[in-house]
Design goal:
Blueprint: H1 3-27, E1 57-61, E2 64-70, E3 75-82, H2 87-91, E4 95-102, E5 110-115, E6 118-119, E7 131-138, E8 141-142, E9 149-154, E10 159-162, E11 167-168
Antiparallel strand pairs: 1-2, 2-3, 3-4, 5-7, 6-11, 7-8, 7-9, 9-10
Length: about 170
């Protein structure tokens, strides 16, 4: 093989290698910039999800917390636990996302809230249980009516459970 042909072959291989590397990097999102949607957030370190806005964080059980985050198209509540398996998350005293609640679009005449003084007719929710509710509002005041939609934050199962006819004493 001539010198010129060998040199051209090496350039082509170098370019192909560079293109493959760029493609591989583009296909592998950086931990701190993904996901752009709520799908796939479980198992991630909350502190490394930086492209979602929000600073709400509330402890809801031993080692468990509730966080709220939003991006341009979605709003989510995230149930988290103190990181114990993810070493990179442990290093930042982080919280691993264990469950994700993708909220429906909240109309302007409704307000979302987190409460601990709520109840439902079936007794599924009792005072002290953490709940998320979407309530009707008028003049920026929550109306004393049952929630339009509501979810119990269940620390035992580390999940969100829909609850019909939820009412909260703080809104009565």
């Amino acid at each position: 093989m001539g010198k010129a042909l060998q040199s051209q072959r090496l350039r082509v291989l170098g370019i192909l290698s560079l293109v493959a590397s760029i493609g591989l990097l583009a296909a592998t999102p950086a931990q701190d910039s993904w996901p752009s949607t709520a799908a796939g957030m479980n198992g991630m370190c909350l502190e490394k999800v930086t492209n979602w806005k929000g600073h709400f964080y509330l402890e809801v059980g031993v080692g468990l917390g509730l966080a709220y985050r939003k991006n341009s198209t979605e709003e989510v509540f995230l149930l988290t636990q103190i990181a114990d398996l993810d070493q990179a998350c442990k290093e930042v005293n982080g919280h691993t996302i264990v469950s994700t609640l993708l909220l429906p679009v909240i109309p302007i005449d409704e307000k979302i809230g987190v409460g601990f003084d709520c109840y439902d007719p079936t007794g599924t929710v009792i005072k002290g249980d953490p709940v998320i509710g979407v309530f009707k509002k008028s003049d920026n005041q929550v109306l004393a009516t049952p929630a339009e939609r509501a979810w119990l934050v269940d620390p035992a199962t580390k999940s969100f459970q829909a609850v019909p006819d939820l009412a909260c004493r703080s809104f009565e």
